[in-house]
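Incident log, structure service

09:12 report received: a user says their structure output differs between two submissions of the same chain.
09:20 pulled the input from the user's history:
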Amino acid sequence: MSAAELSERLEVLELRYAHQEAALEELTRTLLAQEQLIRRQAEQLQRMEHQLRALQGGAARSLRMDNLGKAVAAQLLRMEVEAPADLPRLRPQ
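09:34 re-ran on a clean worker, output below:
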């Protein structure tokens, strides 16, 4: 191989490496964002589980007939939960 061919081949390999490095950085950012979202959702689920377990102890079994259950259900309905932007919506925003 001539020096020119080696130089051209080295340049092509350097470009590939740069593109791979950029792709890895983007993947890392995406994974970190997903990890943060999963953590927030896990915390929200734990809070919801805690509230539901609290209902089992002192409230009546049927939430439909129980004022406390209705109050907690209303709180749950008002709770904001983050969702991915590409999640299908039931009603247009």
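09:41 both user submissions now match this output. Likely a transient worker issue. Closing.
09:42 reviewer note: The first helix runs from residue 3 to 58. Residues 27 and 33 are 10 Å apart (CA to CA).
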